[in-house]
C-alpha cells in the first residue's frame, strides 16, 4: 500500500462490509447495507474477474462494480492477510482504506480460489492450517450454537464449514430467501420443454417458447 500498488481488501467499517480493489488504474469499492446485528454469524461472498467485482453479504442483494481505467490484472506480491497484523501499522494498509484498526473476532471458515475454473480451498499449508494470526479465533463456540437457521432449516457442521440445510422452497445462508418456481432447485421443477424460458407469475409460471414450438410448456413442434 505504500506506493499505490495493486490491492484487494475486505473490511468492516461503521457496521457495513467494505470491499475495494485496485488493478493499477483506480480503485473500485462496494459497500454493503448495514449488517443485521440479530445474526451472530455473517456470510460474505466476494470476487473479481478482470475489471468486474461483486459482493454478497448474508441475504442482501448481490452488488457489482467495474474498476476504472483499462488495466484488468491484479498484480500482488505481498502476503495474503486474514484478521489482524502482528502490530497495528496503518501505513501497510492500502491507500484510502480508512480502516481504523485490525479485525478482532471469530472467523469460522474461509475459502478462496485464484481462477474461475479452480475449486474453492481453505488457505494454508496443509490446507486449512493457519500460518499466523492475531485476534482471530472461533470464540470457543460451536458455530451452530450461534447460527439461527430460519423456516425449518437445520444447521450442519462439517470440519471448519458451517451452513444451513434448508427445507424445500427456501435458500440462502440462513434459509430466509424463497426459491422461485423457475429456479433449478425448485421442487417440483418447471415443465418448460425444448428451450422454453420459465417466467414466474404471481400464481405459478408461464413458458416463453422459442420459434418453432408452441403449447403450454412448449412441448409441441
UniProtKB/TrEMBL annotation:
GO CC term, one of those recorded: basement membrane
Residue ranges occupied by any Laminin G domain in the UniProt entry: 1-139
The EGF-like domain, residue ranges: 140-176, 178-219
Sorted UniProt keywords: Disulfide bond, EGF-like domain
Pfam family, one: Laminin_G_2
Bridged cysteine pairs (disulfide): 166-175, 209-218
Gene3D superfamilies, per the entry: 2.60.120.200, Laminin (2.10.25.10)
One MF term in the entry's GO annotations: calcium ion binding
Protein name: Protein eyes shut
Species the sequence originates in: Pelecanus crispus (Dalmatian pelican)
